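I'll show one example:
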Amino acid sequence: MNRNDWHGVIPAATTAFHHDLSIDFEFLATHVAWMMDAGCRGVVAPGSLGEGATLSHEEKVQLWKTCAKAVAGRGHAIAAIASASTAEAVRLAREAKDAGCVGLMVLPPYVYKGTWRETRTHFAAILRATDLSCMLYNNPIAYGTDVLPEQVADLAREFGNLHAVKESSADVRRITAIKALLGERLAIFVGVDDLIVEGIAAGATGWIAGLVNAMPKESVRLFDLAMKGEKEKAAELYRWFLPLLRMDVVNDFVQLIKLVQERVGMGSARVRPPRMELTGEALAAAEKTIAEALKTRR
């Protein structure tokens, strides 16, 4: 995997669980293959949407092996590298390659919100530990660490295997700011579902997507229309899709996206604690939104 491979729709895959909350690897393989069949370029796992913080080291390795086999040469298996410990993150990065992954999505440290010197040292240790192509993940809303465009550029200039950035600040100006500093040096991915059309207009060429787990054909079609500049067709599809896409940017996004999967017949709503499945008014509101979308689905 190299700089030119970072483009298109790449799902942040959910993690399927059996009733006893062990990972359903058989379904995971089927799910990944289904998304690849719809035109996705690869898969990232296990990020926040994949409930990575609840998975053991051994489960992550087996999950990567499953994803690598499921993409079957049609795309790229990308490992999300997230840990509270720099040493553990480095270990995960090395084992991801052995498990068959061809790229990494590198997150800042969990829990501890350090200075830029500390955060940079964490990123640098991971980037030095691998020859795999890497994407930097910036999500200040979720993780409390904001990697500014100048800091992204700093890392890109030192590390030749840093090929992409997933921008999830929800500030579309970050895309133009990174491009102003680096030109085409990094591929820029939108990391929040309800900003994809605006992000592409600003210069993004990829989408690490959430609702794609339930609706891959619609996700790929929306992306392609936006990339081709077919504004009216993209706007029409976007209007229909937005009530679902907005489920990706709220606190219960994992539960919501899995619920949509369940309603379209591709997965279940099961989550691992501390998350719990939706109930009461939250469930009723979600069900109403999903039902309306499915009723008007084209």
Observations:
- The chain has one domain: 3-295.
- The radius of gyration is 18 Å.
- Residues 3-295 form a domain with the TIM Barrel fold (CATH 3.20.20.70).
- The first strand starts at residue 8 and ends at 11.
